[in-house]
C-alpha cells in the first residue's frame, strides 16, 4: 500500500511567502518561490537565533525580592485579593526570550527566453524534492531543488533544451547585518552578524546588535555553481553571472557559531565561512546525482514508515497528484461544497496528514534544534511571537504525533532541549522561588531560557506559568511507553534522560505546592493558560489550583513513582514524597454547567470560548484514567467552548474529541481545519494558506502537526492500557487503510476499513508480549510474537 496524496503543486510561481513550498533537512530550510524570470529561495538556518546564553542574565531579578514577592502573592490569594496578587506577580517577570531569525535569500535572475507556457511546480512529500517545469516554444526548462542530507546544502539544478541557453545572475542577500561580501569565479559568500537582542513584535519589536562577541552569534552564507555556459567576471556585490547556460548545478550552505543547544558561541564569521566552504567542497565532490539519491533514501525511509490511504480508489491515475494544477485551487473548490471540504474531496485529509509528517521530518532532526513556532521556516524579523518556543502548548503539540508515526529520530532535538532547559531551570527554581528541582515558564529559546517573561508589564495569565517543565517531561515518559518491553535502548533512556528530568520536575512540584485549608495540596499562584476568571464581574488572571496545574502534578508524581520502581529506587526521597502527596491532589471535577472546572474555585470564565483548552489536558495529551462523569464533563466543556478557533486550537479540539470517541464532532472540526484562508474571518479563525501551512492566524506550524496528531487519535489509541482501533473515525473518511501507525509497547499496526467498518487489522511487535485490542464494543487478548504479524480476529 502506498499513499497517492503526496504532492503539493501549483500552476504559477509563488507571489507571496505563503504560496512558496518548504524544503529542509532539520537544520537548513528554504522556501521555494519558483519563476521563469526570477528564482527565489528564502533561506533559514535552524541555528540562527538572536542573543546567546548571556541573554538570560541581562537585568537579573533579585532572588530575595523574588522570593518575597512569591510569599506576598500567596498571602494575597489566601485573602482573596486577586488584583494585588496579579500586581505583585509583575515583579517576577524578567525580560523576554530570544528570537528565531530569517537568514538570507538566494535569487537567480533568468533571461534569454521568450514567454513560458505550461508552467507547473510541485513538491514531492515522499522525497523532499521540488521540481518546476515550463516550455518556451518547443523547448523545455526544468528546475529542481532539495536540501541534501550530508553534506547539508541546498542543491538547485537547471536543465533546458534551449539551444542558446539562458543568462543567469545569482545573488545572496540577508536581512541580518552583513560584515563582508566576497566573490570569485563561480563562488560567492557573505559573512554575517546576528542580533544580540530581539524584542518580540508584541513588545517594542526592537532589533539590537552588539560588538560583544559573547552576546550574539555570527555566521556565513555561501554558494558555488557549475554550468556549461560562459562565466562572467565577478561583480562588486558578489553576484555570479553566466550566459548561454543549458545545464547548471548550484550548491548553497549556511553556518552559524551556535555550537550546541544552550552552549556559548564558538568561533566567528570567518570560521563559519570555512565550515560552509568545506561543506560546499564536499557536496561538489559527491555530485548532484549522489546527493539526489541520498536525499530520496534518507528522507524516504523516514517518510515511508507510515502509509495512509483515504478514499475507495485503488487506481493511482485517478489521484489529483497525477494532474497538473494547483493544490490551493483544489482546496478552494472543495470548500465550495456545502458539507465541507472533505465531503467533496476526502483525499485532502490524506494530503495534509502526509504534509505534516513531511514538515516534521524536514524541521526536526538529530543535531538540530527542535521545531519552533514556524518549524524552521521564517521570513520576518522580528517574527510573530519571536518564532520561539511557546511551551504552554505549542512546542509540545509539534511532537504529539511523533511517537505514533515512528519518527523517534525527530524527537531527539526535543529531548536535548529538555536537557538544556532542565539545567538552566534548576538555577531559576532556586533563585526565583527558593525551590529544588527545575522549572520552565511560558517562553523559551535555543539557549534554554527558563524565566517568566514580560518586562513587568505582561499579562500574568500567560507570563506567570511555572508548569512547562511538567508538560515537557511527559514527552520523555511517552517515549518510554512507546518503546518495546525489554529494549535496552529504552532502559538506557530511562536512566539517562527520563528519570533525571521527571524526578527534577516532581521535586520542584513538591516545593511549589501549598497546603490548602481543607488539607488538600494545590498551587498558588496558579493560572490556566491563557484564560482568566471573573470575580464579581471583574476579570482576574491569577488564582489558586487550576485544573491544569493539578493534572500535570498528578501525572508527574505517578510517573516518577513508576520510574523509581523500574529502576529499583523505590526509597528515593522524591518518589516517596510524591507518592504521599498524590492522594491529596484533587482530581478534575465537575462544576458549573456540568463542565470541568478550570479552577477549583469554579468562578465564571472571562472568555468562555477561549482558544486554550488547558483544563482539558488530562483528556489529551494526558493519559490519566478518566471516569464516565469526567468524560461527560469534558464533552460539555468542549460544547460550551465551541468549535471555532485558531488553527492549533482546532487541532487540540480534534484530538480531544477523538479521545472522547465522538466521530461526529471530529467531522465538525475537520470542516474548520480545511477552510481556505482566502477569506478573512478574523484573528481567532484558523484554516489553511495556499501552501497548506496552518493559520493561527498568522502561520504557526503547530496547527499542521496538531492535525496529524488529532487524526491519528481518531484512527488509533493506546493510552489506556489497550490498543483501540478506529475509535473516532469520521464519516467523511469512511474508506481507507493505514500501515505503520505505532501503539504503545512498540506495536505497529495495519488496518483497512470500508463504509466505516473495519475489515482487517494486523499487529506486529518487535518482542513477544500480550496485548488487549478493542474495536467498537469487542475486545481480544492477543499473544504477539517477535516479528510475526498477528491478525485481529474480527470475525470472532
Describe the protein:
A hairpin with a 2-residue loop joins strand 31 (747-754) and strand 32 (757-764). The protein contains 18 helices and 35 strands. The chain is of the alpha+beta class. Helix content is 31%, strand content 23%. Strands 1-6-7-8-9-18-15-12-11 form a 9-stranded antiparallel beta sheet. It has a 7-stranded antiparallel beta sheet with strand order 2-3-4-5-10-17-16. Helix 9 runs antiparallel to helix 11 (468-482), helix 11 (468-482) crosses helix 13 and helix 16 (647-659) runs antiparallel to helix 17. The chain is globular and about 85 Å long. Residues 313-324 have low confidence and may be disordered. The two termini are 26 Å apart.
Please state the overall shape, judged from the principal axes of the Cα atoms: globular
- Which structural class fits the helix and strand makeup? alpha+beta
Uncertain ranges: 313-324
Q: Which band does the percent of strand residues land in?
A: 15-25%
Helix content: 25-40%
Largest sheet: 9 strands, antiparallel
* Alpha-carbon distance between the two ends: 26 Å
Question: What is the strand tally?
Answer: 35
CA radius of gyration is 27 Å
In round numbers, the mean pLDDT is 96
Number of helices: 18
Biggest sheet, strands in spatial order?
A: 1-6-7-8-9-18-15-12-11
Q: Characteristics of this structure?
A:
796 residues; alpha+beta; 9-stranded antiparallel β-sheet; 7-stranded antiparallel β-sheet; 18 helices; 31% helix; globular
Compact description:
The chain is α+β, with helices and mostly antiparallel strands. 31% of the residues lie in helices and 23% in strands.
